[in-house]
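Sample 1 of the test manifest.
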Amino acid sequence: MVKKPFPGQFGSLAEISAYIIQAGKQAGLDESQIYEVQLAVDEAATNIIEHAYRHTENGIIEVSYEILPNGLKVIMIDQGETFNPDIVPEPLFTTDIESVKPRGLGLYIMRKVMDEVSFEFKTGDGNILTMVKYNNKK
Amino acid sequence: MDVTTTNYNRCSVIKTSGRIDGSNAPEFGKVLKELTESGIFNLVFDMSEVTFMASAGWWILIDTQKTCKKTNRGELVLVKVDKAIKDSLNLVGMSSYFKTFEDMTAAVGSF
């Protein structure tokens, strides 16, 4: 398990992406799969910065990864506010663009592009997001 | 974030490069808003050098598209979209909101 802390600020997003791209390469993911992992991790980090830390200056996002025999596991931990992922509404995509609603898109994308997404909220340990991408399926 | 705008007779072409994420999407949105507020509703977004697009960026484009398409006064089209970005747009289900073109001449000529 490789672990790295990042400041919970938008300025860290590019660095987090670079870190996770090289993890995806090590795990043998193809270019499209690496992009999807990058997207999911970026959306998760953005949610942590915006909602868990609410743009406060000293929050830390700890990003770790594990190379699996058949893919990549990413774990992101923050000490910010908790939330209930089950009640986050899904974005509304209608044929009429005027009615499209942006709510919950980050979480929706994470669930769409990753094979497994789970949340744990533990007092003392923080909010733990675990995501897995397998290299044998889209 | 560098965003360039080139004005043609019937449309304007916007170009930027690299990542569009939570850190710079508001700045990008400001440029697009300035264009639509000045009455330009035919827009081509040259994505040939955009390497990553987070949802924050897509919402800027959706919002701009809503403004452009209001009362059929115009449209935002995308050109030279990176394959991985296009795949993610399809997967999420937002591809139907934007016409995409493979080359600039066709995109500008669509207006």
